[in-house]
Design goal:
The chain is of the alpha/beta class. The protein has twelve helices and 16 strands. It has an eight-stranded parallel beta barrel, surrounded by seven helices. Strands 12-11-15-14-13 form a five-stranded antiparallel β-sheet, with helices on one face. A two-stranded antiparallel sheet has the order 4-5. This is chitinase.
């Protein structure tokens, strides 16, 4: 985005904020969504009840898998999904597994919807097997409906990463059509929608849109250790990120260009950083070293690292106001960190409100910092994002399904 357009955006935020707040608060509400990963219960000791559920309207349970031999759904970890003894949030009840604890949370917040997310990274062959065989697709759809009914999910999220050609894109659209007709009308149907333009162009977006409740836009991972040529921001809102021309704003425009209503677009944001190693110059566009080191870090762990580095006067950190991206560079380790911070969350919340998008989505719940009772001390991303929307009272208030 050119500097003039960026300036216009910030000017509109500054001068039209109050009138726009008044208009929106009387006409609509926002979605605040987050993915919960079932494996977070192990190393991270992060459980569903750790999610500040009053700040969310939707939780997506990741992931449910597909058996490519039969097309039926299967749990990726039955122990944590259904059997692990967990804290009960309701007196007198016993809780076994993440899904049961999530259902307790729905009782405590009747506006909280819990949807199962099917697929995830590296599972594209599961979907390919289903759409290529009518019998497997029939089994898949039947299994989805059974899971929704048995485990009281409020909806289904399809995370096929990614259809690799127009034929597979058409097959995904047909799968969504069949699912929509099979599911009860009150149940949600969404997808984790790609941000890369090469992936977007494989999708018949107009056709898909008529079957979807809303789109979760994966507006992150624009750059990364495993696929980038240069250091880049991984979730910038505007402009070239240093490695390529991707930004969240361009993704939103790509979908609206194909006829999707802004109110059906939910802006995805990361609760984690991406790390580039071997960076000799501490800025985007620099060269970096390809390594096998872990290249992601939860947002809630960044402060510890930044604090340690500050003590040694070896850290450069800042915020790119024009592109809306936080970054840090360690002069000693030669690591460049790109992430969303509180300032990012505030600006993206204002962006969602200004452009009347459907809301925001985060990957994933284990990465946020706790919400403090003292507003001034809050470093939670979802807290500041929701605050920009108008607070919890601005969130979608349709009721969930308990049965």
């Amino acid at each position: 985005m050119c500097h003039r357009m960026i300036k216009n955006f910030h000017d509109r935020l500054q001068h039209d904020h109050q009138s726009h707040d008044s208009q929106i608060s009387n006409t609509r509400s926002f979605k605040s969504c987050v993915y919960f990963t079932n494996w977070a219960v192990y190393e991270k000791k992060h459980f569903p009840c750790d999610i500040p559920y009053e700040y969310y309207s939707h939780i997506f349970y990741a992931f449910i898998a597909v058996d490519p031999l039969t097309g039926k759904l299967k749990f990726t970890d039955e122990w944590c999904d259904l059997q692990m003894p967990l804290k009960s949030l309701v007196p007198g009840e016993t809780v076994l597994g993440n899904i049961q604890q999530l259902n307790q949370m729905k009782k405590l917040n009747r506006q909280l919807k819990v949807c199962m997310s099917i697929g995830g990274w590296g599972t594209h062959t599961q979907f390919e097997a289903v759409v290529q065989d009518p019998e497997k697709q029939h089994s898949f759809v039947k299994s989805v409906v059974e899971f929704v009914e048995k485990y009281h999910f409020d909806g289904v999220d399809i995370d096929w990463e990614y259809p690799k050609n127009l034929s597979q894109g058409k097959a995904l659209a047909n799968l969504l059509k069949v699912l929509r007709h099979a599911l009860p009308p009150q149940r949600l149907l969404t997808i984790a929608a790609p941000g890369g333009h090469e992936h977007i162009k494989q999708l018949p977006i107009k056709v898909m849109d008529q079957y979807l409740s809303f789109w979760n836009l994966m507006a992150y991972d624009f750059s990364g250790l495993g696929w980038s040529e240069k250091v880049g921001y991984h979730s910038n809102l505007f402009g070239n990120n240093g490695d390529n021309d991707m930004c969240a704003d361009s993704i939103v425009k790509a979908y609206t260009k194909h006829g999707v209503s802004p109110q059906k677009l939910v802006l995805g944001m990361p609760m984690y950083a991406r790390i580039f190693s071997g960076v000799q110059e501490g800025h985007v566009g620099s060269k970096f070293a390809k390594t096998d080191k872990e290249d992601t870090l939860g947002y809630n762990k960044i402060k510890d690292i930044l604090g340690n580095a500050k003590d040694q006067n070896i850290l450069e950190h800042g915020f790119d106001v024009k592109k809306v991206a936080a970054f840090a560079y360690n002069l000693k380790t030669k690591q460049f960190i790109t992430y969303d911070n509180v300032q990012s969350a505030k600006i993206k919340g204002s962006y969602v409100k200004l452009h009347e998008l459907g809301g925001g989505m985060w990957w994933d719940s284990s990465g946020d910092r706790p919400i403090s009772n003292n507003c001034k001390d809050n470093e939670s991303l979802v807290y500041h994002f929701v605050d920009q929307l108008g607070g919890c009272k601005a969130l979608e208030d349709s009721q969930n399904s308990l049965h």
